[in-house]
């Protein structure tokens, strides 16, 4: 055979194949000249043909041969003959450590330390000679009959300086790879120490520390640092497996020395610990990411390529979580909204080239010979970052070759940001982009000029384009809608029988749409007639992308990535990856961006501040989660300051516990406000940070919808979440705030134990308070007006109607109104004909402000007009002018100047100063007070804190005296203000309420609010 001929030529007689692997084969052979047994390794041709590998192999083999150590297998010869690389070394009679472990299971501690102590000494000697092994594993540790250990295979594995070949596929021994090897970083002696720690762990437990069911899961486990603890060795592995190499042991000898220093009592339980470790390793199906270290810009966020089998094809670090991904024009393109850059990732080497295509990038698409980058310059005034221009970038030079200006005038629907769901696409011969004016712009890719502006009558959420046509989804109904490229007109929509649509992709002759609420991927084959088929992927989903004959879905809440065969509709692979941020398919892989999570119990530095604890070491942690960027940033930072004030006022103590605090950001630069992807990523981080026993937040109810179930399933039991600002009734009561979208409480509380409370009244309580106001104003006939918008319809009107029936207030009629202001005069006429003395308007000022103006003109000043705090006073005055004067506005937000204050509230208002009058500041302080009370009455565990919280009775606190009724503050207090255009100088109100005066405070009993 070929090997025999090669052996004969180089002077060795091959006798027996004793090993093989990805790098080559190993034979037991005889040196013909010296008649001594040798182990002869022949390198596979694919590697031998690489000149870089060949040079490094020969150089490092010579260096390894110079090592004179009793536990290093001596190298007799290394060379090349007719293109065949070979290595001859001493043949060790005995076995290797891998065979011993497979045959005997875990080794005795004394034997483990005796064997690995020899290997540690050999490695340290190699490191002093500036030689790194790079492939320390049981198979490379030989053990003779006298238990003498030898380290073999120096300088053979992964010679190309990382863990990838030129194809980008990972190679090497995955169970023992250090995180920096996985990420393609610098490999040094500390990488060998990490691998030796993996071997130590396996010797003690019989199971590799990070082994999971798939290659992808194993690599994720390394990056996160999740492994089952071995009792008595916790301190050893915590340091040895440190994500940052500088935090590991200084040498391999230090590692084995530390392992010898153990607690005898703990050692007796080692066998139980080993069995549990094996069970935990086998059961761990989830993949978790590490947090980031800002100083060294290490990984914590990633771009990962999965192949059709779920294996990792490449793994690229990122300082912050990439916002959007696109594949095409020979590369992968990644938008980083935090750094305001775009990066080109080479498909072969994963090398990144960063560039800027303009200020404030918002979106990304590839095709037509170019990269297309959306920019959000000037969009800050909308409160979110959205696309106001599109730049064409040459994919080779990375130079901007043209820019298209879109509208900067928002539609009545307001501005919508891109949050991982593309609002730009290339297909059907054009570039398509959604503008802030809710028109879809058609751009010629050659001239970079607008060729059509297509008005859309619903709020566009995302779109896709390709051979199957141009399609978009919208926020206001459950239709999939097509644009006819021949006419630039919107065709009739295709209804999808589901409660909400999220992602869209085209490919394989179909349109693919996700519906997160029911976990379905919809395949729509355009007609006529269209064929609509649901596919149950067996897990959650939000994003979707199509390529290479398959549809891939991913979910940012649970991190599940699924591959669906485009021909059979069958699920062929499913992998769980933490905190998915975006998804794109192309070049044979699914490309996924992932946000960093916890490591060693710490929250990610990219999203959270350092721990504050007054200088003491905290026993437990409290975290907050608010949108610290964008239009709500000032208010949100004020909430964090209010929490800090309460903690400092309590000396960072709750009973016998020292409490630490971290402020986290649920917003991103891309959206300019709270971000659903960040909400989910932060919640996953909180859940896995073991010291965190309670979270204050989030700011938005939509964010809470994601965070509650994640925290409810947290390791160690449900994690308490207390919000100062959420008002969505469905979070605690179940009936939907949005009709037609039922939300069962088990969706939020899958464990059956509620873990959520709020120190603010629900939105529907404002409707009840307005019914009480109508009774006190002696109104007899009230008309209810609701916006024709699923997100706002019924929020005030339905609870008003129910309470009015019990209070004896008459409802004269009801009606819907749309965004077309031309219809408002007719609506006002219908209200006038009903002979009313009061009107309740649901919605927000951007929907109902002009209606107020029409009603005043028709009804006069005596008819009472009542609204909720979805109306911004300034916005109402802007849209309605003097017609807004006298409008009654109800809010559940606590206001320092509303009524008499408890001593605790007066003290907070006096010492916190003017900031106490910022939006929700008193509610945030009350939330901190509640959490500290719960911690003080607990044993410091999550379960105990939650039990204390649910049973809490607050007396004379910042918000007065109250309890929690199924998570809702009871009683709820509603402040009614009257719009006057000028707030009295003696009164300080939040910015959103300036221009109004406090009228009264209404206490809503639980018996009336439900």
UniProtKB/TrEMBL annotation:
Domain Protein kinase, chain residue ranges per copy: 12-261
Molecular function terms, GO-annotated: ATP binding; protein serine/threonine kinase activity
Gene3D superfamilies linked to this entry: 3.40.50.2300, Phosphorylase Kinase, domain 1, Transferase(Phosphotransferase) domain 1, YVTN repeat-like/Quinoprotein amine dehydrogenase
Assigned EC number: 2.7.11.1
Keyword match Iron: no
List of residues binding ATP: 41
Family (UniProt): Belongs to the leucine-binding protein family.
The name this protein goes by in its record: non-specific serine/threonine protein kinase
Organism (species): Solirubrobacter ginsenosidimutans
Biological classification of the source: Bacteria, Bacillati, Actinomycetota, Thermoleophilia, Solirubrobacterales
């Amino acid at each position: 055979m070929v090997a025999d001929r090669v052996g004969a030529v180089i002077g060795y007689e091959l006798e027996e194949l004793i090993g093989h692997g990805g790098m080559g084969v190993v034979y037991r052979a005889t040196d013909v000249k010296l008649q001594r047994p040798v182990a002869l390794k022949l390198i596979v041709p694919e590697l031998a043909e690489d000149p870089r590998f060949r040079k490094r192999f020969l150089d490092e083999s010579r260096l390894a041969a110079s090592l004179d150590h009793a536990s290093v297998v001596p190298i007799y010869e290394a060379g090349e003959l007719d293109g065949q690389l070979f290595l001859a070394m001493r043949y060790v009679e005995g076995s290797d450590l891998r065979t011993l472990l497979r045959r005997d299971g875990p080794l005795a501690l004394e034997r483990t330390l005796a064997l690995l102590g020899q290997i540690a000494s050999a490695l340290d000697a190699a490191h002093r000679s500036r030689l790194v092994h790079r492939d320390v594993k049981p198979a490379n540790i030989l053990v003779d009959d006298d238990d003498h250990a030898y380290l073999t295979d120096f300088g053979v594995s992964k010679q190309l300086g990382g863990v990838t070949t030129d194809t980008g596929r990972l190679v090497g021994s995955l169970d023992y790879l250090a995180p920096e090897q996985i990420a393609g970083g610098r490999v040094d002696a500390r990488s060998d120490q990490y691998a030796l720690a993996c071997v130590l762990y396996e010797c003690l437990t019989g199971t590799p520390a990070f082994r999971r069911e798939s290659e992808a899961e194993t690599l994720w486990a390394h990056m996160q640092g999740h492994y089952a603890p071995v009792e008595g060795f916790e301190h050893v592995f915590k340091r040895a497996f440190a994500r940052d190499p500088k935090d590991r042991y200084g040498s391999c000898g230090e590692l084995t020395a530390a392992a010898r220093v153990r607690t005898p009592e703990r050692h007796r339980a080692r066998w139980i610990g080993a069995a549990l470790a094996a069970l935990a390793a086998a059961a761990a199906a989830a993949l978790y990411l590490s947090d980031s270290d800002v100083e060294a810009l290490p990984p914590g966020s990633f771009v990962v390529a999965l192949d059709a089998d779920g294996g990792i094809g490449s793994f690229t670090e990122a300082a912050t979580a990439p916002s959007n991904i696109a594949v095409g024009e020979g590369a992968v393109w990644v938008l980083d909204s935090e750094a305001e850059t775009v990066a080109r990732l080479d498909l072969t080497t994963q090398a990144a080239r960063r560039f800027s295509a303009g200020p404030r990038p918002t979106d990304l698409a590839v095709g037509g010979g170019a990269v297309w980058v959306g920019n959000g310059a000037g969009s800050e005034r909308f409160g979110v970052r959205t696309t106001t221009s599109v730049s064409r970038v040459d994919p080779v030079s990375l130079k901007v070759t043209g820019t298209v200006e879109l509208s900067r005038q928002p539609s009545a629907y307001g501005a919508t940001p891109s949050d991982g769901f593309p609002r730009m696409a290339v297909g059907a011969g054009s570039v398509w982009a959604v503008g802030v004016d809710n028109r879809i712009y058609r751009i010629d890719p050659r001239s970079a000029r607008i060729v059509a502006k297509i008005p859309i009558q619903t709020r566009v959420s995302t779109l896709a384009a390709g051979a199957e046509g141009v399609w978009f989804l919208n926020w206001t109904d459950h239709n999939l809608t097509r644009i006819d490229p021949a006419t630039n007109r919107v065709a009739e929509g295709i209804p999808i029988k589901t409660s909400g649509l999220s992602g869209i992709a085209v490919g394989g002759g179909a349109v693919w749409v996700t519906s997160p609420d029911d976990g379905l991927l919809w395949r729509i084959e355009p007609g006529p007639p269209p064929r609509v088929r649901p596919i149950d992927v067996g897990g959650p989903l939000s994003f979707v992308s199509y390529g290479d004959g398959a549809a891939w879905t991913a979910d940012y809440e649970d991190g599940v990535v699924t591959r669906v065969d485009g021909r059979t509709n069958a699920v062929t692979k499913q992998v769980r990856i933490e905190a998915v941020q975006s998804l794109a398919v192309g070049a044979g892989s699914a490309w996924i961006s992932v946000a960093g999570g916890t490591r060693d119990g710490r929250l990610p530095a990219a999203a959270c501040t350092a721990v504050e604890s007054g200088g003491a070491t905290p026993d437990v942690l409290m975290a907050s989660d608010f949108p610290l960027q964008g239009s709500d940033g000032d208010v949100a930072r004020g909430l964090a300051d209010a929490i800090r004030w309460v903690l400092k006022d309590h000396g960072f103590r709750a009973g016998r516990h020292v409490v630490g605090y971290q402020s986290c950001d649920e917003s991103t630069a891309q959206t300019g406000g709270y971000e659903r992807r960040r909400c989910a990523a932060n919640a996953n981080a909180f859940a896995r940070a073991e010291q965190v026993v309670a979270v204050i937040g989030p700011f938005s109810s939509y964010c809470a919808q994601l965070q509650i179930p994640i925290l409810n399933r947290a390791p160690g039991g449900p994690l308490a979440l207390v919000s100062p600002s959420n008002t969505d009734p469905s979070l605690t009561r179940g009936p939907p705030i949005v009709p037609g979208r039922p939300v069962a409480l088990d969706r939020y509380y899958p464990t059956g134990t509620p873990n959520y409370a709020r120190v603010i009244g629900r939105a529907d309580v404002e409707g009840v308070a307005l019914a009480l106001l109508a009774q006190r104003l002696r109104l007899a006939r009230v008309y209810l007006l609701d916006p024709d918008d699923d997100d706002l319809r019924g929020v005030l009107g339905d609870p008003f109607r129910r309470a009015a029936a019990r209070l004896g207030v008459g409802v004269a009629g009801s009606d819907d109104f749309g965004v077309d202001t031309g219809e408002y005069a007719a609506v006002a006429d219908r209200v006038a004909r009903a002979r009313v003395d009061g009107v309740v308007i649901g919605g927000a000022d951007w929907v109902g402000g002009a209606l107020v103006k029409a009603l005043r003109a028709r009804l006069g000043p005596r008819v009472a007009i009542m609204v909720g705090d979805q109306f911004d006073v300034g916005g109402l005055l802007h849209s309605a002018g003097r017609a807004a004067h006298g409008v009654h506005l109800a809010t559940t937000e606590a206001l320092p100047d509303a009524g008499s204050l408890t001593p605790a509230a007066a003290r907070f208002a006096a010492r916190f100063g003017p900031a106490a009058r910022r939006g929700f500041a008193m509610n945030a302080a009350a939330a901190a007070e509640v959490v500290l009370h719960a911690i003080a009455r607990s044993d410091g565990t999550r379960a105990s804190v939650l039990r204390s919280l649910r049973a809490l009775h607050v007396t004379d606190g910042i918000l007065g005296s109250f309890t929690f009724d199924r998570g809702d503050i009871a009683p709820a207090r509603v402040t009614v203000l009257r719009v006057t255009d000028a707030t009295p100088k003696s009164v300080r109100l939040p910015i959103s309420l300036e221009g109004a005066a406090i009228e009264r405070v209404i206490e809503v009993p639980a018996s009336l609010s439900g």
